[in-house]
Design goal:
Helix content: 55-70%
Distance between the termini: 54 Å
Number of helices: 16
Order of helices and strands: HHHHHHHHHHHHHHHH
Strand content: under 5%
Shape: globular
Structural class: mainly alpha
Radius of gyration: 20 Å
């Protein structure tokens, strides 16, 4: 290699980086620079996996079928979401089998990146499988009758991520897991509230049908260009539920120290900022997702840090 010459990243590496780049659009910081390098690498590996699962389930993969090929399928299989999720689960099991297992090394670069993180932290397959289960459910279940049904979905789609964060940082306890689950469910509900229109475009509604009836909201009302009084009242009700969950989970921040405290404050503050944006929009989420400003996010994080009780 000549001096000053840089080799180009492999195409598969570029492909994986494009998925990881979506972290910038999240409501909360995924792996901020103030964290130790090992934590950042672990969090980004977990995020890359979670983002890939969601992109498969939502049909948001990059065009060309490269992800299907990486998972051992025909490029045309990209459109078969259940087949893609099955192939991803098989590749996930290779992460835990290791090179000596019957399946060999993982095929997808994002799962190859995950393997050393799994080994270093002794992670188990269950939370990763939960995320796949949530996206399988998305292919079969497009409406939720009750709030409890929706919370059950969040137990698969969101809570595993918080549990993985605690495992990666060596801070898991039953009480912290309980608080983390409340925060993660709240973050998922906040995202659903922001994305009512986008989800409806995928024929999915994450507003409980029981609540829609209570507020006299129909699916036709959700297809309007802007929300009427009934829809706004429904969104306000669900927003308060998410706030209550964040309040329930926020003592998690005070139970840890140092840079982890800042990270968890970012999660809670990010959720509060997202709900604040929904509120500032007058609970009219139908024109598009209300997004918090960076200054609004920083204010909320600072407020969490000020008010979180410290525990030993």
């Amino acid at each position: 290699m000549t001096p000053g010459h840089r080799t180009r990243p492999l195409p598969d590496t570029v492909h994986a980086r494009a998925t990881l780049g979506k972290a910038r659009a999240e409501n909360f910081p995924v792996a901020p620079s103030f964290l130790p390098r090992a934590w950042r690498e672990g969090l980004m590996a977990v995020y890359g996996y979670a983002r890939l699962v969601d992109d498969i389930g939502d049909g948001d993969l990059a065009p060309g079928g490269r992800d299907a090929v990486l998972l051992g399928l025909d490029p045309a299989a990209t459109d078969d979401r259940l087949a893609m999720l099955d192939a991803l689960e098989a590749d996930l099991l290779r992460v835990f089998d290791g090179s000596g297992g019957p399946g060999g090394q993982p095929r997808h670069p994002l799962l190859l990146d995950l393997q050393p993180v799994v080994r270093a932290h002794g992670l188990t397959p269950e939370p990763f499988l939960g995320l796949i289960g949530a996206n399988r459910q998305d292919q079969r279940v497009t409406r939720y009758e009750t709030y409890e049904d929706l919370v059950g979905y969040c137990e698969l789609s969101a809570n595993p991520v918080g549990r993985l964060v605690l495992s990666l940082t060596g801070t898991s306890t039953p009480e912290r897991i309980r608080r983390s689950d409340a925060v993660c469910t709240a973050l998922q509900i906040a995202e659903h509230l922001q994305d009512v229109t986008e989800d409806l475009g995928r024929d999915r509604i994450y507003l409980p049908a029981q609540d829609m009836r209570r507020f006299h909201v129909t699916e036709a009302d959700l297809r309007a260009p802007s929300a009427g009084a009934s829809v706004r009242s429904l969104i306000a009700y669900e927003t308060q539920r998410a706030r209550d969950l964040l309040d329930e989970g926020s003592p998690l921040v005070g139970s840890v120290h140092g840079r982890l405290r800042l990270l968890l404050a970012g999660f809670v503050g990010g959720g509060r900022a997202a709900l604040g944006a929904v509120t500032a929009a007058g609970f009219d989420v139908l024109p598009g997702p209300p997004k918090p400003t960076k200054s609004g996010l920083l204010r909320e994080v600072a407020a969490v840090l000020r008010t979180a009780p410290r525990k030993g």
